[in-house]
């Protein structure tokens, strides 16, 4: 007979086992950090990833701490000041999916414009929903069909909602209560949205009622004084940078571009096999192929010595002595391309060498590769120094392949500048001309029509016509539009300048109707401040380069130009001032007349619009056979304007035939 005490013990064990089995379904899964969740569930879609990277997500050493801090509830604001191509877009995508599908928290991803919003939703989120089962199975609707739970502007999940908005209007920040927000490419946002405030403040308002609010801001930075990230990260309690270890001495250090070393071949090209990174401690020079060894012992560390330890759950913040400390509310991260195993140092150096003498390329390299703010220099060029660089030519030299005329309208005259352009934007000033007369009358416009109709004979006998004519319509714009509407050949462009330092060199056109004919004429907005910076850089390059070495970006001036022309080229200076603690930049006039500088700036804008195919033009001028493909390419580049542009030209020609009018020459 069994012992009653043994029977009672077995009964208790059976009861405990039954209770445990019953409670198993209520057991909470282990809390995963964002990086661990992504490695288990997140997929890289082939449409938005290079072929070799599509498939399962692999967290790189410099990505893990950022991702896990995004998933840490103790951190409320995280700023990522980054370079291009370090996986930030994918991390932002994984961050959103992690919150709505795994943590059941609603949130919003903002993009700079409406077009960016649509592209992000359709080209990134939709493929991710198709490829990530752990996310798509939480979607309230069918991810293959558009519906109330699957729209471009929002995705409905079981227990959460994902909004996708643009930052182009104040309404994009209203009518939502969310737990997290992502301001992607922050430096592309307006500083003040519809007069309601800056985008960060508007986004934080949406997080007011959340128990675990999280604002994530990421961007490739732009210019000092104009960068929203520069202002945002300045209020962070700690800013972390990535420290690697030397493969030789194992000392930990932050990487700098100045420590990259290289040599050139005898022909001046980069010797890619010579590119090394020099350790600041032992001066050992290691190759890019050793970068994974430098990741051993790497970590994100702040200037005060605090560093981040990553785990399978929330990351741990330690002080310089290794003691665990609490997380601050607001942290930031900075990184540049040198730390990335995805971008070889050989390419980085090659890109720098190609950009170092070109303002536009160097600015892009500084922002997108070095992840540094572009500093506008308070600088100018002395006109007298350029005057000494004049050359004795009267016809377009052989290097000229395209000719551009730019026009500035004054109260009693039209100021003209005609330049020839060749490969790599080497330029030759051909003529500086003034047409006297009241622009409100027919006479000066008739003379302008005659002027742009002339042909130019190059020194080798080749004939060239003017490829493009641009007219600044800041003054007497109605008269400019009326004259441009009657030019049926489509090589006349109306410009209006923008003083914004972050404006594009040439923005897409908007149509304006002619006052006299009703013909629509496309008007292009030119970043005047940006174009003047290009001119300043090219003039400095010309001064620093001997004539015998003249090539890309060099400006040639004929001996027929007088001193007044060069004084006008140096008539403005770029200066920096502090306004309410923020750096502001502006062009300051040093003399009254500055038409030559404005006209030269318009020349570069016209080149951007024209986009000449130099090889095709050169073959045609030399009488060589031009392939059908070359002809189609050149035609596509020259006729790249909008349909409205071409329609306006056709309408102008038709009106000219039916009713010449008193203004038609």
Q: Could you describe the 3D structure shown?
A:
The structure is a single chain. By secondary structure, this protein is α/β, with parallel strands linked by helices. The protein contains 20 helices and 29 strands. Strands 3, 4, 5, 6, 7, 8, 9, 10, 14 and 18 form a ten-stranded mixed β-sheet that branches. Strand 11 and strand 12 form a beta hairpin. Helix 10 runs antiparallel to helix 11 and helix 15 crosses helix 17. The longest helix is centred in the N-terminal third of the chain and has 20 residues. It is elongated, with a radius of gyration of 31 Å. The chain starts with a helix and ends in a 7-residue tail after the last helix.
Number of strands: 29
How far is it from the N-terminal to the C-terminal residue, by CA?
Answer: 126 Å
Low-pLDDT segments, ≥5 res: 625-665
Percent helix: 25-40%
Given the C-alpha coordinates, what overall shape results? elongated
Radius of gyration: 31 Å
Total helices: the number is: 20
* Overall mean confidence score, pLDDT: 85
Q: Look at the helices and sheets and give the structural class.
A: alpha/beta
């Amino acid at each position: 007979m069994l012992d009653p005490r043994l029977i009672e013990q077995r009964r208790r064990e059976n009861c405990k086992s039954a209770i445990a089995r019953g409670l198993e379904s209520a057991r909470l899964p282990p809390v995963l950090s964002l990086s661990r969740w992504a490695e288990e569930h997140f997929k890289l879609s082939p449409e938005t990833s290079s072929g070799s990277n599509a498939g399962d997500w692999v967290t790189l050493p410099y990505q893990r701490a950022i991702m896990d801090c995004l998933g840490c509830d103790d951190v409320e604001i995280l700023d990522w000041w980054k370079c291009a191509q370090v996986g930030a877009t994918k991390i932002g995508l994984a961050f959103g999916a992690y919150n709505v599908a795994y943590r059941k928290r609603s949130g919003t991803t903002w993009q700079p414009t409406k077009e960016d919003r649509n592209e992000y939703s359709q080209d990134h989120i939709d493929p991710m929903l198709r490829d990530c089962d752990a996310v798509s199975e939480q979607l309230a609707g069918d991810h293959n069909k558009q519906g109330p739970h699957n729209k471009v502007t929002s995705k409905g999940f079981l227990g959460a909602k994902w909004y996708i908005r643009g930052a182009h209007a104040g309404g994009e920040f209203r009518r939502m209560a969310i737990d997290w927000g992502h301001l992607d490419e922050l430096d592309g946002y307006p500083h003040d949205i519809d007069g309601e405030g800056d985008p960060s403040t508007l986004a934080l308002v949406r997080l007011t009622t959340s128990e675990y609010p999280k604002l994530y801001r990421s961007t490739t930075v732009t210019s000092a004084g104009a960068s929203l990230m520069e202002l945002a990260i300045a209020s962070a309690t700690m800013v972390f940078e990535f420290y690697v270890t030397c493969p030789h001495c194992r000392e930990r250090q932050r990487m700098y571009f100045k420590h990259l070393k290289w040599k050139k071949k005898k022909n001046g090209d980069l010797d890619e096999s010579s590119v090394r990174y020099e350790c600041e401690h032992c001066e050992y020079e290691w190759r890019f192929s050793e970068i994974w060894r430098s990741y051993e012992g790497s970590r994100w560390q702040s200037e005060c010595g605090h560093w981040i330890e990553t785990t399978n759950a929330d990351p741990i913040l330690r002080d310089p002595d290794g003691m665990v400390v609490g997380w601050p509310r607001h942290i930031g991260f900075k990184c540049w391309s040198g730390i990335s195993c995805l971008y070889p140092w050989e390419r980085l150096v090659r890109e720098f060498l190609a950009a170092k003498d070109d303002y536009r390329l160097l600015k892009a390299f500084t922002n997108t590769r070095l992840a540094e703010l572009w500093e506008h220099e308070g600088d100018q060029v002395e006109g007298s120094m350029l005057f000494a660089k004049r050359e004795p030519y009267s016809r377009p030299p052989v290097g000229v392949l395209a000719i551009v005329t730019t026009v500035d309208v004054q109260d009693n005259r039209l100021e003209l500048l005609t330049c020839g352009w060749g490969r790599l934007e080497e330029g030759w000033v051909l003529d500086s001309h003034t047409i006297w007369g009241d622009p409100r009358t027919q006479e000066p416009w008739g003379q302008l029509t005659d002027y742009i109709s002339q042909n130019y004979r190059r020194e080798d006998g080749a004939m060239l016509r003017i490829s493009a004519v641009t007219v600044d319509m800041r003054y007497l714009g109605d008269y400019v539009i009326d004259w441009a509407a009657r030019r049926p050949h489509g090589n006349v462009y109306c410009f209006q300048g923008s003083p914004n330092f972050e404006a594009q060199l040439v923005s897409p056109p908007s149509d304006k109707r002619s006052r006299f004919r009703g013909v629509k004429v496309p008007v292009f907005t030119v970043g005047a401040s940006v174009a003047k910076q290009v001119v300043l850089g090219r003039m400095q390059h010309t001064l620093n380069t001997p004539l015998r070495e003249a090539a890309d970006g060099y400006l040639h001036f004929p001996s027929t130009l007088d001193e007044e022309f060069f004084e006008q080229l140096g008539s403005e200076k770029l200066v920096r001032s502090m306004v309410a603690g923020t750096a502001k930049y502006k062009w300051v006039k040093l003399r009254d007349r500055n038409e030559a500088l404005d006209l030269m700036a318009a020349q570069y804008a016209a080149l951007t619009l024209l986009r000449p195919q130099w090889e095709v033009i050169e073959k045609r001028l030399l009488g060589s056979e031009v392939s059908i493909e070359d002809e189609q390419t050149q035609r596509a580049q020259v006729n790249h304007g909008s349909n409205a542009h071409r329609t306006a030209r056709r309408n102008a020609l038709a009106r000219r035939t039916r009713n010449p009018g008193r203004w038609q020459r």
